[in-house]
């Protein structure tokens, strides 16, 4: 995987003006600083990881979507339940060929984070960590995270295999942590 090309292909699903990122750099998982390393360098769902780290369930807020017959893209925020505190930004590109109609409908309904839907429906899945990214927030991401433009944080690119097929491509960026 060329991490920066994959990042660009996901960002192109939802072009932002002003830009989402000021910069992005592919970095080694082994050199990623804590607590980002524990939050990002693993093969688990970010929904569960964010809930454990922030000691709160999370809610999904869909900012934009891009559906067609077989694929569904969405740009989201994960927020601590019952608050406006954003804990993660994400872009998802989902190929619905590899899941049941019930799973597809629950994802399209946009009420539950993707990871929680797959877990609840017991979809056979494996998460393949593609790359860790060190990013600087552009104006759009800084607004979502309520931080200064240029603030550094970390994210990841990953693929979720559903029923042994590459069904979901993900960009997941953690809110800046102290």
**Elements, N to C (H/E):** HEHHEEEHHEHEE
Number of strands: 7
Q: Strand order, biggest sheet? A: 1-5-6-7-4-3-2
Q: Count of helices?
A: 6
Q: Give Rg in angstroms.
A: 15 Å
Structurally, how many domains make up the residues? 1
CATH class: Alpha Beta
Helix content: 25-40%
Tertiary shape: globular
Residue ranges: pLDDT <50 for 5 or more in a row? Answer: none
The fraction of residues in strands falls at 35-45%
The whole-number mean of residue pLDDT values reads 93
Q: Distance between the terminal alpha carbons, to the nearest Å?
A: 30 Å
Look up the CATH topology: Chorismate lyase
Biggest sheet character: 7 strands, antiparallel
- Report the structural category: alpha+beta
Structure in words:
- The chain has a single domain (3-11, 20-174), classed as 3-Layer(aba) Sandwich (Chorismate lyase).
- The chain is globular.
- It contains six helices and seven strands.
- With 178 residues, it is of the alpha+beta class.
Write the layout of secondary structure elements.
Elements: H1 3-11, E1 21-27, H2 36-40, H3 46-54, E2 58-67, E3 71-80, E4 86-95, H4 101-109, H5 114-120, E5 125-137, H6 139-145, E6 152-162, E7 165-174
Antiparallel strand pairs: 1-5, 2-3, 3-4, 4-7, 5-6, 6-7
Summary, kept brief:
With 178 residues, the chain is α+β, with helices and mostly antiparallel strands. The protein is 26% helix and 40% strand. The chain has helices at residues 3-11, 36-40, 46-54, 101-109, 114-120, 139-145, and strands at residues 21-27, 58-67, 71-80, 86-95, 125-137, 152-162, 165-174.
């Amino acid at each position: 995987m060329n991490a920066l090309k994959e990042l660009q292909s996901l960002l192109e699903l939802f072009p932002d003006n002003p830009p989402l990122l000021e910069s992005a750099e592919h970095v080694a998982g082994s050199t990623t600083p804590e607590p980002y390393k524990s939050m990002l360098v693993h093969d688990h769902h970010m929904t569960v990881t964010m809930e454990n780290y922030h000691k709160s369930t999370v809610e999904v807020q869909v900012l934009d979507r891009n559906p067609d017959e077989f694929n569904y893209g969405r740009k989201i925020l994960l927020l601590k339940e019952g608050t406006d505190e954003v804990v993660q930004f994400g872009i998802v590109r989902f190929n619905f060929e590899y899941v049941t109609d019930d799973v597809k409908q629950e994802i399209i309904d946009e009420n539950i984070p993707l990871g929680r839907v797959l877990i609840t429906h017991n979809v056979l899945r494996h998460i393949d960590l593609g790359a860790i990214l060190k990013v600087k927030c552009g104006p759009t991401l800084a607004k979502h995270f309520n931080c200064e433009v240029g603030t550094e944080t970390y994210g990841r690119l990953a693929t979720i295999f559903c029923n042994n097929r590459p069904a979901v491509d993900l960009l997941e960026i953690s809110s800046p942590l102290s």
